[in-house]
Specification:
20% of the residues lie in helices and 28% in strands. It is α+β, with helices and mostly antiparallel strands.
């Protein structure tokens, strides 16, 4: 089951990512394109990604 971050603008906010447990991986996808490509990370990689996002290491765009 895919879910959006609690920090998103709500269920109607399509400018965010969704995550899901996919077997032993954590899936990340663009909520605007649920049938598009997905990123599969192990738990360590996902944790590192979250840390880097919180540090502001990425430029995030709402326009894709």
């Amino acid at each position: 089951m895919w879910r959006k971050s609690s920090h998103s603008g709500g269920m109607n906010d399509d400018a965010c990512v969704e995550v899901a447990q996919l077997g032993d991986r954590i899936g990340v996808r663009d909520s605007k394109n649920p049938d598009g490509e997905r990123l599969g990370l192990n738990s360590q990689e996902f944790s590192e990604l979250v840390v880097r996002i919180k540090r502001g290491e990425f430029t995030l765009r709402a326009d894709g």
